[in-house]
Write a structure and sequence with these properties.
One of its GO terms (molecular function) is proton transmembrane transporter activity. The chain is about 75% helix and about 0% strand.
Length: about 55
């Protein structure tokens, strides 16, 4: 499992080094994933504080 994680880190590093050459589809998927993670974080915060947006 550790070897697989190290492989993924190498892939991420190579993509970061060539970030100016990434196609727009990969940039869009990354942006969508980031927005989804942020949205789930916000939902978790609301539910963790009692599930009410009015007292937020």
């Amino acid at each position: 499992m550790l070897e697989a994680a190290q492989g993924e880190i190498k892939v991420l590093e190579s993509k970061w080094k060539g970030r100016m050459d990434l196609p727009m589809t990969e940039i869009g998927v990354g942006a969508l994933f980031t927005a989804e993670v942020y949205a789930w974080f916000c939902v978790g915060e609301v539910l963790g504080r009692g599930g009410s947006i009015t007292g937020y």
